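Issue 218. Parser rejects a valid record. Input:
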Amino acid sequence: MLRYGCDRCADELCKLKLAHIGAQRVVLQLFVLHLYNAKNKYYNLCMGIHTLIIVILVLGILMFVYMRKSIQQLSTTRMFCLFFVLSMLNILIEMLEYWVFGYPAGFFPWLKEFSRGLYLILLLSVIYALSLYTFSRFTKERGVSRRHAVLSAIPAIVCAVLVALSKFVFGGTSSDILLNICYIIGLLYAVSSAVLAIVYNGRADREVFGAILVTHLIWCATFIIQLCRKGTQVSSLAMAATALIVYVSVENPKDYYETNMPAIRNKDALIAMLAESFAANKPFHIMSVIFIEKNILFTDSAKKALEDVQNKVAEFACSDYQLHAYLSSWNTLSFITKKADVVERFMSAINSYNSGGALNYKLKFSVIEAPAVVKELDKAMQLLSYVSGEYVYTQNSQDIVVDEEVVDKMIYRNTIEDVVRQAVKDKSFDVYYQPILSVKEGSFSSAEALVRLKRKDGEKYISPEDFIPIAEKCGLVQEIDDLVFEKVCSFISRENLMSYGLKTIEVNLSGNDAVDAHTHERLFRKMEKYHIPPNYINFEITDTSHITKDETFKENIRKMREQGFTFSMDDFGTGDSNLLELLKMDYVLIKMDREFVWNCLDPDKPDKLNVLKHTIDFIRKNGLHVLAEGVETLEQAKVLIDNGVEYLQGFYYSRPVPEDEYIEFLNAQKGLVNKTNEA
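Output the parser choked on:
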């Protein structure tokens, strides 16, 4: 019994020893596991903070680059800057949250709640700012009204209140219900902004639309991930991706500046600024400095010289008047200000400004008051183009104040442009003919072909003096020239005008055609088509000083002369058609402009008749023939003939008439010739 008892005690003691060893092992295993988990937690903490540091560095660099160049004061730029600031604050709070949650439970419990709550509020603020940015990009007004900003903020404000009361309502900011609410609200912001971009995608460029849509899809994925996995926070990556995509594709400041002129913003920047200025519905002024230079040929050296002068004016305006320059047209800098006194001071400064003699540019100042004169962005841009492109050359004054009268002229001009474009499309131009009397032969041996354009109502014609400059501006004049020349050739062939004793038909050749390398080929093919000899067409060229230095023009004229064409100088005595220019080319005929003729024949200024005599003598001594336009009376015809004019053209003999009436005129011209001989 004793042995048995001793053995039993020994077994029990052995079991106790084995149990003790097992407990030690369990404790050791738990300790090792604790160290392992602590290591992983520390590792995850470090990795998370490293990621946030990289993201905040990326955002900081982008913001520095973005702010380094002077950005426009637009709602879009303000919203983008707000997005930057809120994103960086959110990441800083997230870094704090990582640090706080790395400590054992019970350490700084109030700081844990505070950091988590502030993270959620800032996260919603970031997506709210991005939604406002999207709205300002796609709204017609290009801005965000206070009403819209407040209404859009209501969901975020509700979440902020819930976060503030989370301790009492949800038991803390780590509550799944609270997190779900915040993430769902953020998802709704992202989805609604994406839908807005899709619905109104036509209001932005494709690149802008694509960039903004992608960013909101990224945010949708971000909130879905954080809804499904509560412990995963990928919002910082979404912020970095958004900043990069929007900056590169949409908000790069370089996109708003001219490449070769660092002090000047481009037309896109002007349109964006004007859109917000009109949306604000407050008075402002659009000032322009127009650079006028005589030479039409814009060589590389002339372009560089103009850019230098424009840069100087832009820098002067920025440094002395805090005005940013926009290149609204190739020859125009525009400025926007809300201060009327700045307009007066800047106008005086431009009037006395010295460009340093780089080029002989004449600076003209214009100002448009908005919304008093113009209330819409599109009309404002049209008005700027009209004033600097056409209207300025009709004004002698140094300063141009654009008023309702100028707007009406622009509207009339645009109406004509519509008619011209439709007429080119329909090939509905008419050709009229004005007879030209040969004094020596006593017959109407030639005629000038003149293009005519009817209004839409079909009752009245639009003067070529109105629609030809517009056609040149729109790049349609060459098509008009081709249509007119085709009709002239068809008429000559169809009616066999040579049988009436006509020796030539005068046809206008525009400067655009004169400098086109293929002009001589097109014209010659049309004449071959209708079997018309080249010497039957005499081309009238005007304002030759603008093109005589062009090598293509010289080559065209040489080839056309070789083919048998001849040339006249049109509108002599006006503009740049002067004595010097007529010596530069081998003309056969000089056409004296009617204004020049009338001035020389003014009975109240008899001394000017000597100018006419000397001019005719000079032309004829150089082997050229002389034609006088604008003959309206018998007395004028007598004086011109007595002073050596060889050809006469004007209403005294006939107005320009359509084809059928011209044929009737040719059949009845004998009486008119006798009438002239009696004179």
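Fixed in the parser; the record now loads. The longest helix spans residues 2-68.
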